[in-house]
Structures are given as structure tokens and as C-alpha cells.
Amino acid sequence: MTEPTGKNSPDSDSPGQLFTELTTPSRRHFLRTIGISGMAAATAPVWAQAAQLEAPVDDSEKPLAKGEQRITLTVNGQPYTLNVPGNAVLLDVVRDRLKLTGTKKGCDHGQCGACTLHINGIPVNSCLSLAAMHQGDEITTIEGLEHDGQLHPIQEAFWAHDAFQCGYCTSGQMMTAAAIIKDPNIGADDASVREAMSGNICRCGAYKNILAAVQDARSKIQGAS
Ligand code: FES
Ligand code: FES
């Protein structure tokens, strides 16, 4: 993984003033308000509002159309019964049927990691997976990473370390990070984390801050246990 210096990096050649400018509350407020970035989706009040707007999807009384299959899924703890075309992609079902738009579509070819969510605890590129393959599975999206209004340590660390710029890759980065810090097969050293997260591309080059956030979250989780 290359590590270009992000323009918001504290190690930037620019004066410290630039860093200060870029991390002022107004910038954060902007990211939170527009609601289109992964980080904006990471704010608990936004998630809660979005969840309340949408009635639970339940197709159990709806006849299957030609080519559809009925699946039941649990997404962020909520059960769903869905009629889906056999070729429906999980990412599209999550975004378009369930309106959980924190999971992003980047390349749509399994190359960028923006669409990462957890299936039975394993991080998966949802753009490469058919919804019909997930009968009975438990899925967690970025909207489900917090619990009871409390952000996940990974989310707090991304926020604290300014580990994003445009935010488009951020939900995928956080979903992968949340999985790898729990994986005993992945080393805790920086090189292992970079390797484990190399499937998540950040076009803004925020890698340095992302790594710092992951390691900070790891130390906080270990300190709390
Ligand atoms: S959108 Fe799935 S890997 Fe890029
Ligand atoms: S923050 Fe822009 S692509 Fe990663």
C-alpha cells in the first residue's frame, strides 16, 4: 500500500495553520451535514434519523415475481424478509431496498473496498455478492457499528485522527478495520495492518491517519478489556 501524504496530514509540508484550518469545526460540520460521506453516516444521530424514516421491509405477504427468490436476513439486528431477483447484488439490495446508504459503491468490481460490510462477522465486498446467497445471514453495515448511540472505538478514532478527506471510502475502511482488530490471525504491527487493509483504497490518500486511527482504536479496546 502506498502512503501518499494527505493534505490534512499533520506531517504536511504546509504550515500547521493549514492543518488547523482543515480540521476546524466548520469542516467537520460540513461533512456531518451533507450526509453523503461515510463519516457523515458514522454519526449516531444521523443513523437514528435515517432508520426512523424507513418502515421495515417485509415482503413476506408479497407474491414472488418471475425470477425472484425470498430471503430472510438480519441486518444490524433487524430481521428482513425480501423478494429479490436471483441476480440482485447485495450492495444494491442494502442501499436501494433497505435504504442503508452508508455502504458505498465505488468501483463495483471488488477492487476498492468502499462496499465493505460484515457478513456473519467477516468483512466482505458486497458488490461481488448476490443477495440470494445470504439466506439466514447476519449482516452488519456501517449504520450498525454503533450501539445504543455510542460510536464504535474505530469510528471515534477515525474522527479523532481526521482519518478521511472526502469520506467516500470511510465506511468501508472502518468496517474492515473493525474486523481486523478482532482477528487473532492479523498482527498488531503497522505492516500487518497495512497489508490487511490493502483492499480498501483511499483516493484521497488518508492512509497515514487511517493507520493511526486503527492502532489508536486497538489500544483503547485492549485498555478497556
Ligand atoms: S464497490 Fe465493491 S469493491 Fe469497490
Ligand atoms: S477519504 Fe476520500 S477516498 Fe478516502
Task: Give an overview in words.
- This protein is an alpha+beta fold.
- It folds into two domains: 16-48 and 149-224, Orthogonal Bundle (DNA polymerase, domain 1); 54-144, Roll (Ubiquitin-like (UB roll)), CATH 3.10.20.
- The protein has nine helices and five strands; from the N terminus they run H-H-H-H-E-E-H-E-E-E-H-H-H-H.
- The chain has a five-stranded mixed sheet with strand order 2-1-5-3-4, covered by helices on one side.
- Strand 3 and strand 4 form a beta hairpin.
- Helix 6 packs across helix 9.
- The longest helix has 18 residues, at 207-224.
- The two termini are 31 Å apart.
- Mean pLDDT is 83; it is low at 1-38 and 40-53.
- One FE2/S2 (inorganic) cluster (FES) binds at residues 164-170, 202-204, 206.
Topology:
Elements: H1 16-22, H2 25-34, H3 38-41, H4 44-53, E1 68-75, E2 78-85, H5 90-97, E3 116-119, E4 122-125, E5 138-140, H6 153-160, H7 170-180, H8 190-196, H9 207-224
Parallel strand pairs: 1-5
Antiparallel strand pairs: 1-2, 3-4, 3-5
Helix pairs in contact: 6-9
The protein binds FE2/S2 (inorganic) cluster (2 copies).
One FE2/S2 (inorganic) cluster binds next to loops.
